[in-house]
């Protein structure tokens, strides 16, 4: 697989790393190694974004040892910006499988439709209440709840945590992060009993307006390429793909 490349989009890739924080990072010859107790591939993978001066085979082996010592699988995130640019082929030859082909999509905030569902709450600081609802809707364990809370508290730019209510009950939530003129959208989730009612669309419209009020002129999001309902929703909202990425995971 060969990513499509556009150097202007590397900023969005940097933002996506800032906005989904791990618990710790290790800079290794230009690569960013991220660790978060195994919670999500994005926060527990190698981001080969920058220069690479070492022998790449030795470097991969050292990364494998580092992740193994942390009881984690070795995972690489493959974007159009990888260094060296033949890394994806090398990982393929070393037995790494492609997992979770995903799209990065953007849209301008010049014009945004007004939301019709007004019963939402926006918190600009993470609250235990929001996190409880998020974990309930995602069926996250208490262990992952603690990790998620630490990760969200590590974000260093403006955040908005949104909850959407029906008859006083939180049935959808998500969050946005504003930085460098973009609002990134994350973890949009709706209660399974309330799906296909346009609630996610309403919640995203609120987030986009909040982002615009806080200086954003564009929005970006990431979506798994085989998630047909999400792709349909984001197309309806005016988002379009700018590049793809995937993960390389060592075969067991």
From TrEMBL:
<dbReference type="InterPro" id="IPR000182">
    <property type="entry name" value="GNAT_dom"/>
</dbReference>
<feature type="domain" description="N-acetyltransferase">
    <location>
        <begin position="99"/>
        <end position="252"/>
    </location>
</feature>
<dbReference type="InterPro" id="IPR056935">
    <property type="entry name" value="Rv0428c-like_C"/>
</dbReference>
<keyword id="KW-0012">Acyltransferase</keyword>
<dbReference type="Pfam" id="PF24553">
    <property type="entry name" value="Rv0428c_C"/>
</dbReference>
<protein>
    <submittedName>
        <fullName>Acetyltransferase (GNAT) family protein</fullName>
    </submittedName>
</protein>
<keyword id="KW-0808">Transferase</keyword>
<dbReference type="InterPro" id="IPR050680">
    <property type="entry name" value="YpeA/RimI_acetyltransf"/>
</dbReference>
<dbReference type="InterPro" id="IPR016181">
    <property type="entry name" value="Acyl_CoA_acyltransferase"/>
</dbReference>
């Amino acid at each position: 697989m060969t990513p499509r490349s556009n150097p202007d989009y590397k900023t969005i890739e940097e933002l996506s790393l800032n906005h989904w924080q791990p618990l710790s990072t290790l800079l290794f010859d230009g690569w960013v190694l991220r660790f978060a107790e195994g919670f999500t591939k994005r926060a527990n993978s190698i981001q080969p974004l920058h220069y690479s001066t070492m022998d790449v085979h030795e470097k991969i082996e050292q990364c494998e040892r580092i992740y193994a010592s942390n009881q984690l699988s070795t995972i690489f995130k493959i974007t159009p910006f990888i260094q060296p640019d033949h890394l994806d082929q090398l990982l393929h030859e070393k037995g790494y499988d492609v997992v979770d082909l995903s799209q990065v999509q953007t849209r301008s905030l010049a014009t945004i439709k007004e939301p019709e569902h007004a019963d939402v709450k926006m918190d600009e600081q993470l609250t235990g209440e929001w996190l409880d609802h998020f974990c309930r809707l995602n069926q996250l364990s208490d262990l992952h709840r603690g990790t998620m809370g630490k990760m969200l508290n590590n974000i260093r730019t403006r955040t908005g945590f949104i909850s959407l209510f029906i008859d006083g009950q939180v049935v959808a939530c998500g969050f946005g992060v504003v930085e460098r003129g973009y609002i990134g959208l994350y973890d949009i989730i709706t209660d399974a009993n309330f799906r296909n009612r346009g609630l996610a669309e309403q919640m995203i419209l609120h987030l986009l307006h909040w982002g615009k009020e806080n200086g954003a002129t564009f929005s970006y999001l990431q979506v798994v390429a085989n998630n047909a309902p999400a792709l349909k929703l984001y197309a309806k909202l005016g988002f379009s793909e700018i590049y793809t990425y995937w993960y390389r995971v060592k075969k067991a």
